[in-house]
Amino acid sequence: MKKFAILALLAATGVASAHETLVITYDGGYGASVNNVYNAVLGADPMAEHLYNPAPGAVAAYLANEHVESIFVFDVTTYSMMNSDDAAAVGAWYQQENKSAVIDGRSYGVLFNGGTGGDEDKYITNTANWFLNNDGGLWIGTDHDPDWTMNGNQYLVAAGFNPIVGLETGPATGWNASPLFDGVNVHGLDWSGGNWSVGHTPVGLQPNGVTLSNILYSGPSDPMISTYLVPAPGAAGALALFGIAALRRRR
Predict the structure, then answer these.
(1) pLDDT digits (tens, 9 = 90+) for 67-106
(2) Where are the alpha helices (DSSP H) in 96-199?
(3) pLDDT tops 70 at residue 12
(4) Cβ 23 vs Cβ 68: under 8 Å
(5) DSSP for 76-110, written as a single string
(6) What's the rounded Cα separation, in Å, for the pair 92 and 181?
(7) CA gap 120, 115 in Å, rounded
(8) Residue 196's pLDDT is what?
(9) What global pTM score does this model have?
(10) Does the pLDDT of residue 248 top 70, yes or no?
(11) Helices (H) and strands (E) in the chain, counts
(12) How far is 192 from 195, CA to CA, in rounded Å?
């Protein structure tokens, strides 16, 4: 019903069309595996759109003419390949309504170990499915700061989040339960082999009012993946039980 309402609104306002998911890939020349995020998203949304190395301003122009529910940004370059209009457009899109967010500072695991249907791909597909089933969301994947966060951090700050910072070389030592890890061997998301350099993702209360929780980390102060999921896992069930109890009280 929601999708039909959106399409009717778009037709009335002259916006060209609606796509559930947009994947934006910034590639510094690392081969076909830079498409691994997009290909894993296709496992959840076969109609997902892909902007590969968009020119500065192209993301802003796209969002001005298309309605999307979810955005994935995969930043695989040491160069800024966007402009302030792009950042502002994604920031405004995210902050216009309450959406999930997933921030991944070790996302190059998808680059190195994705594309085979394994744990990295399942994690991305799970994320895309969560977004599709829960009114959309924003995923931003980078590596360590400052070299590999040139585009991702611009989008994060524009959306009201703190940036990915620092460089972590220690292996992942723990994780917290998450629906994004359904069917995933979380050990498989530690692609370090004891030798990697990844970024620390923001956690806690953010400038936009969202509170991020870490779900994969090297230590309590070394988060590698942070999330804000809408609704919070278990919330839908709690709301359903509340509704049943309310009906019983009315009887």
Answers:
(1) 999 999 999 999 999 999 999 999 999 999 999 999 999 9
(2) 108-113, 119-133, 152-158
(3) no
(4) no
(5) E-SS----HHHHHHHHHHHHTS--EEEEETTTHHH
(6) 29
(7) 8
(8) 80
(9) 0.87
(10) no
(11) 8, 11
(12) 5
Nearest to 149 by CA among 114, 112, 105: 105
Contact 95, 163 (CB under 8 A): no
3-state SS class at 124: helix
Backbone angles phi, psi at 197, to 5 degrees: -140, 110
Give the model's confidence band at 233: pLDDT under 50 very low, under 70 low, under 90 confident, else very high: confident
Residue 22 CA to residue 3 CA, distance in Å, equals 16
Question: How many Cβ atoms sit within 10 Å of the Cβ of residue 116?
Answer: 9
User: Per-residue pLDDT tens for 145-170?
Assistant: 999 999 999 999 999 999 999 998 88
Q: Please tell me the distance from the alpha carbon of residue 135 to that of residue 119, in angstroms, as a whole number.
A: 24
Percent of the chain with pLDDT over 70: 84
**Helical axes 84-95 vs 58-65, angle rounded to 10°:** 40
If you compute the radius of gyration of the chain from its CA atoms, what whole number of angstroms results? Answer: 18
Q: State how far the Cα of 159 lies from the Cα of 144, in Å rounded to an integer.
A: 19
Strand partners, 25: 52, 74
Spatial contact of 6 and 18, defined as CB atoms under 8 Å apart: yes
Residue 198 sits at the vertex; the CA angle it makes with 192 and 160, to the nearest 5 degrees, is 145
Q: Is 250 left (phi over 0), alpha (psi -120 to 50) or beta?
A: alpha
| Owner of token pair 């524009």 | 158
**Would you kindly state where each structural domain of the chain is located, as residue ranges?**
2-250
What is the mean predicted confidence (pLDDT) over 93-121? 96
